[in-house]
Amino acid sequence: MADLSPAEIMLDSLVPAQRLIRRLQAVLKAPNPYVGIRLSPEAKAARAAFQSVVQHDLDELTAQRGKCVALVKLIPDTTARTVIKLRYGLVGSGYEKMPHFKIGEKLNYSEKTIFRYHQRGIDQLNQILVRGIA
């Protein structure tokens, strides 16, 4: 297997990051499991510290995702940009990579054409990264 380019590494990290973002959001929204029980000041402090750490991690992941999305928006070829967005969950659920054949069905292109647009998007994103826009 060939080494991955910087763009591929960045994009491959998006799906698990988006999954983790959703999990951390769910952790923060979860109700206190000790409803009706009085917590000690130490327990309250530990819970607050935990929530602070989770919020910090969530903020960092969300910012990193935002940077990636902004870079993908700079891909000049609109079809290649759309293929990249669909492939890496920047449109829709974001829980998993969309297979190339499904992208082809959605955009009414052959799978071979989708592969070409995908590679074009990767190449253009790598150029953006090399130019230092990141």
Secondary structure elements and their pairing?
Blueprint: H1 6-12, H2 14-29, H3 41-73, H4 78-87, H5 100-107, H6 111-130
Helix pairs in contact: 2-3, 4-6, 5-6
How would you describe this structure in keywords?
134 residues; elongated; mainly alpha; single chain
Structural account:
The longest helix has 33 residues, at 41-73. Helix 2 (14-29) packs antiparallel against helix 3 and helix 5 (100-107) crosses helix 6 (111-130). It contains 6 helices and no strands. It has 134 residues and is mainly α. The chain has one domain (6-130). It has helices at 6-12, 14-29, 41-73, 78-87, 100-107, 111-130.
Summarize the structure.
With 134 residues, this protein is mostly helical. The chain is built from six helices and no strands.
Shape: elongated
What's the helical proportion of residues? Answer: over 70%
Average per-residue pLDDT, rounded, comes to 87
What oligomeric arrangement do these chains adopt? single chain
* SSE order, one letter for each helix or strand: HHHHHH
Count helical runs: 6
| Spatial extent as radius of gyration | 19 Å
